[in-house]
């Protein structure tokens, strides 16, 4: 038994402080929005120039001038604001975003993040705003499955994929546990369907007891 | 010099030269100046360096310019998309050069060009492949990378409305790179939905002042 993507998203949402300014990366992290009710007071930022983004647009609400970072049609909520790309990235890079949630290929025990490029020779690389977010947001949360399809752990002593940022990840939410990356080491909590002993055996990263 | 209102897209892009660096607005298709890019394709300029967030969608616009072999180099943050097959093929076969730039550096490097900044240090990209070979400096205990401005010979952007002095307003997330690109090019060409008389736009709502705009065409 392990958590579904939706259940991981719910865990992430539950840890986002009331009233936070938050950027959700494209792909899986986008689903965190489904677990942030209006009462959370959370304001979503999309790097193509909108604060207080609303849910996906449907039917007559679809407007080709109103999209999110994944280029999907979205809506604006009351209290929204629009701005250009230079302002949008100044918000990130200037440390004004409280939290960003990103996907990852790998995260190291020291918080290095690899999520932009597999390094495969025929891969077309694309970075978008990942490096700016990883470096600029006050808290960086990663959301991923803990093990790759081949069973290899994605929380590792050192990343083997090309890096997005160094020492930038604060917390990793996975399908079997949540990991706090602290100055003293990695703390695992909220284990699902795996014992602390099994988890320690499957990872090469030493774990501190919560 | 004051903006000139053009009757056709062809007239608006007439001055783009071979080998030019062309800044092309848009994030995906939002804010993409499709009419100007199509006119540039007809105009025939080649050996271009294109600076844009993405590297073309489908088979039209920027993708068509790439497919016709007019582009020598692409400077962008996110070329890989579900419908970027034209760029993907050219890149894999070595027929187009790519400079991949984190999106915030792309915006800030153009902002620097427009504001007369010689270069700047930023922590974005420090310790990654995209900073290899670049000068670094420790500032407040953090590694920063030296980044240089990106200047355009020409910017092609889309806005919502212009007045006859070239003041621009935008609509929703179609604004994206338009304002910063308008500042970063020697010659800025804008396609708008509507050109209105001077005095119609509320000066408080103008996002790009006309000083940055050279040619305007309503398409």
UniProtKB/TrEMBL annotation, chain A:
Query: Domain of life, per the record?
Result: Bacteria
Q: Which InterPro entries match?
A: 3-oxoacid_CoA-transf_B (IPR012791), CoA_trans_fam_I (IPR004165), NagB/RpiA_transferase-like (IPR037171)
Q: Does the keyword Chloroplast apply?
A: no
Provide an example Pfam family for this protein: CoA_trans
Q: Which UniProt keywords apply?
A: Transferase
Family recorded in the similarity comment: Belongs to the 3-oxoacid CoA-transferase subunit B family.
Please give the name of this protein.
3-oxoacid CoA-transferase subunit B
Organism, by scientific name, is Nocardioides hwasunensis
Automatic annotation (TrEMBL), chain B:
- SMART domains in the record: CoA_trans
Transferase as a keyword of this entry, yes or no, is yes
Record's Pfam families?
CoA_trans
Please, which domain of life does this record's source organism belong to? Bacteria
Question: PANTHER family under this entry?
Answer: ACETATE COA-TRANSFERASE SUBUNIT ALPHA, KETOACID-COENZYME A TRANSFERASE
Give the protein family. Answer: Belongs to the 3-oxoacid CoA-transferase subunit A family.
What's the name of the protein? 3-oxoacid CoA-transferase subunit A
Q: Which organism is it from?
A: Nocardioides hwasunensis
